[in-house]
């Protein structure tokens, strides 16, 4: 199977992985022939990349790091609990966070279990889910990336639960933001952005009074938009004044935001998002954390078509978690000609050969010309 941008798929291609809604029900089954209408609909629903069948990549296994079942249950819980919290806040009703805490802790433990049992780098690009709210899936994705990084950094079980709860609830304050601003299909005005910025303090105020939720978790909601150079919000904190947990969540938050499909911009691929993070090293993000994050995520997801520095073209078939920028690639083209006998090369063993472009990046560039 190959990972391709929806906008570059031609009619008649066969879907290689099913598309789910946020209740876990299948919207499009594996093997269905894609029409222009179905492709347009997928893109409108926020699906930017899909897997299609390609006999040259038979046998490739796609592992995201978190199971479909874990993700389905997590999204259902997040959606239900966040909406209940929003309803209570709107009605100015007091509510007991105790049962919310138990449900969210169950999600964190399930994600941790999946991550610890996974030997591959994390990739959520291959999760073919359609959601009715960005906040729910974003909260989950940030938690997955955060916990993956925290595990790599050697956090204790207690620390993993604290940062896991903090990342899962980092945007809970957005439940206090007017829906028309929160779901605005376009760029925000300066005034609207100031309203959005209030979610950090609002989230902190919700969580700091909640029983059985660590104050450190509450500070994750408060500080995840702070930056090392003091340009963040809500307090303009700098360097060591920002909690370590919040520095980690900030990286996961930005990475998921820019790799997610939004109405007002196209999503980046993981390697493009990492370049963005590296551009902020020193003034926004700590270098050692960005370096560790690169080890955690799949820079080039399995199934992605790539061009190598020697002009060969191939498809990523396996990750090297020790060096995620150098995966195993199945060569399908040499000197501009498709070859009949494909073969695999391990870029971690051939360090003189690197990836210089991806099919999706080239397609996007051609569309802009």
From TrEMBL:
<dbReference type="Pfam" id="PF13487">
    <property type="entry name" value="HD_5"/>
</dbReference>
<dbReference type="InterPro" id="IPR003607">
    <property type="entry name" value="HD/PDEase_dom"/>
</dbReference>
<protein>
    <recommendedName>
        <fullName>HD-GYP domain-containing protein</fullName>
    </recommendedName>
</protein>
<dbReference type="InterPro" id="IPR037522">
    <property type="entry name" value="HD_GYP_dom"/>
</dbReference>
<feature type="domain" description="HD-GYP">
    <location>
        <begin position="113"/>
        <end position="309"/>
    </location>
</feature>
């Amino acid at each position: 199977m190959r990972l391709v941008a929806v906008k570059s798929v031609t009619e008649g291609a066969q879907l290689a992985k099913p598309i789910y809604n946020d209740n876990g029900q299948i919207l499009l089954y594996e093997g269905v022939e894609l029409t222009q209408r179905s492709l347009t609909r997928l893109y409108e629903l926020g699906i930017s990349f899909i897997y299609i069948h390609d006999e040259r990549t038979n046998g490739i296994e796609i592992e995201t790091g978190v199971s479909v079942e874990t993700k389905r249950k997590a999204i259902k819980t997040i959606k239900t609990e966040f909406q209940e919290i929003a309803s209570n806040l709107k009605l100015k009703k007091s509510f007991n966070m105790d049962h919310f805490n138990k449900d969210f802790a169950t999600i964190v433990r399930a994600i941790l279990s999946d991550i610890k049992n996974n030997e591959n780098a994390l990739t959520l690009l291959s999760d073919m889910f359609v959601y009715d709210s960005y906040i729910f899936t974003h909260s989950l994705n940030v938690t997955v990336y955060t916990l993956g990084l925290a595990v790599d950094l050697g956090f204790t079980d207690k620390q993993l639960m604290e940062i896991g709860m903090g990342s899962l609830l980092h945007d809970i304050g957005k439940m206090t933001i007017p829906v028309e601003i929160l779901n605005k299909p376009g760029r925000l005005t300066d005034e609207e952005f100031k309203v959005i910025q209030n979610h950090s303090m609002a989230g902190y105020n919700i969580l700091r009074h909640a029983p059985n939720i660590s104050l450190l978790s509450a500070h994750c909601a408060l500080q995840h938009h702070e930056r090392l150079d003091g340009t963040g919000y809500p307090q303009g904190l700098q360097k060591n004044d920002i909690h370590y947990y919040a520095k980690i969540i900030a990286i996961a938050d930005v990475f998921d935001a820019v790799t997610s499909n939004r109405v007002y911009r196209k999503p980046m691929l993981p390697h493009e998002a990492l370049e963005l993070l590296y551009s902020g090293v020193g003034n926004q993000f700590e270098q050692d954390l960005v370096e560790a994050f690169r080890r955690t995520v799949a820079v080039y997801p399995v199934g992605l078509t790539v061009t190598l520095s020697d002009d060969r073209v191939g498809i990523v078939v396996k990750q090297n978690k020790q060096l995620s920028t150098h995966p195993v690639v199945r060569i399908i083209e040499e000197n501009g000609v498709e070859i009949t006998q494909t073969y695999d090369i391990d870029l971690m063993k051939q360090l003189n050969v690197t990836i210089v472009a991806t099919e999706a990046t080239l397609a996007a560039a051609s569309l802009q010309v």
